[in-house]
Amino acid sequence: MSPFRFSANAARLAKILAVLGRNGFLEFLEQIEVPSRGLSRLIPVRKERLNLWQRIRVTAEELGPVFVKFAQILSTRADFLPEPLIEEFKLLRNQVHPVPWEQMQIIFEHELKAPVEEVFAEFDRTPVAAGSIAQVYRARLRGGEAVALKVQRPGLRKEIKADLEIIGWFAQKMQQHLPELHAYDLPAIVNEAGENMLRELDFTIEARNTAHFNATNPYPEAVFSPRVHEAYTTKRLLVLDWIDGVPPEEVQLSEEARAKIAVNGARSVFHQIMIAGFFHADPHTGNLFVMPDGKLCLIDWGMAGQLTRTMRYLLADLFAAIADQNPEKIVQVALANAITKRRVDPVRLEKEISIMLRSHAHFDTASGAFGRIMLDMLYVFGSNGIRLARDYALLGKAVLAYEEAGKVLDPNFDIRTVAEPFLKKLSLERWHPKTIASLFYWDWRAAVSNAREIPGTMMRLLRNLEEGEASINFVHRGLEGLRTTFEDGINRLVLAIIIAATLLSCSLVVSRISPESLPYRIAEVFFFAAIALGCWLFYETLRSHRRK
Prior knowledge:
By secondary structure, this protein is of the alpha+beta class. The chain contains 21 helices and ten strands. Strands 1, 2, 3, 4 and 6 form a five-stranded antiparallel beta sheet that branches. The longest helix is centred in the C-terminal third of the chain and has 34 residues. It is globular.
């Protein structure tokens, strides 16, 4: 957050600090050098006995829908967040108070370009669901189709951008002052989560993802998503077929039918991940519905993962290494595909992977959770400075969610038996002579193309050197603390000038007018306020020097 934006966010920041103080994070604020002196006397600390992860969740809930959604998106970073915190964030189910119809009506009519009565034969003004980003209503089109209307809450984009600015400021403070976070690029992670959150505000992306899944789904008789009504869909309004289904825990079918639904869902997710490379990234039980005929319906495609062919091959290697309980192979695969800027100790990494695998020693039974192992493994990678593409964390979460839903439907469900044929199919695709020949062909073409460009590139470089146009650019890193100190100094200098100007102007006013006049009283108030502010500035300057 830039210094000139501080005043624009001051009120919201004060509320955030108050909530953090109430939930026992005053010591954290002191660690990252955020002004919090006096909060403990002004704000009563919560009396409930909560652990650290629970207090973080409660804080997100109290700070409102933007922080709830941000926490949910951030929980996909299994390479960064510990599992207990991810489990707490799962409890954040967007349970917010609905916005009154009078405010939502404005959004509807703006997006539809007409009153709702002219577009729909029936319309229920009471929302059937209210989330942090949108509310869902039920209606019936003039043609008779029942539809679900997902409409965005008013003023959301402005609210999200303001809160993301503050979250980014906190991330920079934490990166600077908490050494244990230096292994992570926290501002970059927060920035990525913020971009994903802003992307979810465009409902046309969700509409395209839903339509793409339906068009490429090989199991339409068992798994599907609602049809999108594109004529009515906009960036802030999504219109889908209404689904009369129930969550997995409410299914009232025979044991055989429930087991079949669990297998069908797992087949779909592994086809999405292993074969299509495009998968639903948020398949918790609130987004899975079972129809009366036993079909499984996937809703809310706002968050989708994308895997390239190379990423899918890496995934197959990791799955095989996990199945073989081979930590050395896991380390080799991870290092070969890692995104890292610092040296990784492979011996330490292998030890931690071995410990993690032993903690899942029951994996050889049906009670082992494949998705849980994936998430734990990504966390070990992240804590050792290895970053894999975000989509791996998304697929780990997706596999775990389907696994949990499958267990709800069938206690004996084992996702590994469903995954095995898809892993074999991916392996056959990977080592097929046609695939290998294709890879060699394109690599050869790229090498020839690059070789042809080398002489021209060398000539341009030599010509630039000859004409004196070559330059070397230096990028300074690690100067964030110096920049912050400089900005604080400038802010204090500006504040000191304002105080001096106020004292001088008030002195001139009170010396030239009657003490009984209103301007004299106002000048007197400003005079003493400036003195108080000057004393506070003097105290803060001395305190900062003592800290150093």
